[in-house]
Amino acid sequence: MNVKQIIADNLTELRRAQGLTQSELAAKLHYSDKAVSKWERAEALPDTEVLYDIAMLYGVTLDYLVSDHKDTPPEVQSVRKRNRIIITMLSVLLVWGIAVILYVNLKIALKINYWLVFIWACPITSIVLIVFNGIWGKRPWTFVLVSVLVWTFLASLYLQFLKYNIWSVFLIGAPAQIAIIMWSNLRSPRKVPTRNKDPKEHRDEDKSE
């Protein structure tokens, strides 16, 4: 199978996995649906910049887009996915394990009932999930996890200084959430029309010159 067909198959599979139509994907990339259709029929190749945008959109690497995954047995893919989940969950458990150890030590050694250690474990857990999602996950989840991080951090801060009743700290979350939403909608600027041509048309134009 040639590279063009491999890319076409991967683009089709990823788009369907995200539940997008060709028109919806085209709108996100600022291209026409005809261009997307040509890519998925292996009649044309998106340029490197577009491939990068697509990889960012789907939360995969460029290497993933140009690699043939059909030869990978389903059981191997299943094992990889399971291992990633297990590694992620072990990392989360490590955070909460440290929180438990810290709580017990403070309780025994200093007679301090510092239950807030479990509250602070929530934003730390969000950070761990953001890191692993950046490695293995999909880009849209990053924005969800960043939102969770912002609000759990503000809640932890509020509870830490509960006696001061600093409820206004939550006001910080509003502009932060708006910024996250705007960040999630960032796209690379692109000129729409001229790149929808088939590569054969470009070769014909070069010959005519």
Could you explain how this protein is built, in words?
- The protein is 70% helix and 0% strand.
- With 209 residues, it is mainly alpha-helical.
- The chain is elongated, with a radius of gyration of 24 Å.
- It starts with a helix and ends with a helix.
Which class of secondary structure composition applies to the elements?
Answer: mainly alpha
Query: What is the strand content?
Result: under 5%
Run of helices and strands = HHHHHHHHHH
- Spatial gap, N to C terminus: 33 Å
Q: Supply Rg.
A: 24 Å
Q: How many strands in all?
A: 0
Q: Mean pLDDT, as a whole number?
A: 83
Q: Specify the overall morphology.
A: elongated
| Unreliable parts | 190-209
Give the % helix. over 70%
Instruction: Count the DSSP helices.
Output: 10
